[in-house]
Design a protein that fits this description.
alpha+beta; Alpha-Beta Plaits; five-stranded antiparallel beta sheet; 43% strand; elongated
């Protein structure tokens, strides 16, 4: 089972290393990690996806709350959240396949962000299943390169499930 955790941290050097080190020392595997500055330049938000049961989630949240630079840890349940990933996919094309690739891109509401003689770069955003689906369809044309962000997620509405530091 995968759990998504949002971690609000102080925006300063070394914080990411300390958080990643905590996961490593405890034997937890990070499935996905996305980090960026929030609306406040002094804080960053890490969205971490970790595999394990509810006990693993509880331990992760407790251990994160012990770190000095951590401000707040929030569980982001799948059913009550909006989550997205971004992928850039470089696909091999020629004059015969270019139109077909463009049609697939259009169906998935993705965008072509770069056009070359023998390739296109496709930008797609969505949940994990959408990214996997377009990747599978484009594979037949030859994926030359692909890069994918980690998941970013936010609770729906005003509901915030969180564990504040005490």
């Amino acid at each position: 089972m995968k759990h998504t955790v949002a971690v609000l941290v102080e925006n300063k050097p070394g914080v990411l290393t300390r958080v990643a080190g905590l996961f490593s020392r405890r034997g937890f595997n990070i499935e996905s990690l996305a980090v960026g500055v929030t609306e406040n330049a002094d804080t960053s938000r890490m969205t971490i996806v970790v595999s394990g049961d509810d006990n693993v989630l509880e331990q992760v949240m407790k251990q994160l709350n012990k770190l000095i630079d951590v401000i707040r840890v929030t569980d982001i349940p799948q059913e009550d959240s909006v989550n997205r990933e971004l992928a850039l996919i470089k696909v091999g094309v020629d004059s015969d396949t270019r139109a077909e690739v463009m049609q697939i891109v259009d169906i998935f509401r993705a965008k072509i962000v770069d056009v070359g003689v023998k390739s296109l770069i496709v930008e797609v955003t969505g949940d994990e299943s959408k990214i996997n689906a377009i990747k599978q369809l484009l594979r037949q044309f030859g994926i030359k390169e692909m890069v994918r962000t980690g998941k970013v997620a936010m609770n729906r509405g005003a509901k915030v499930v969180q564990s504040e530091k005490k």
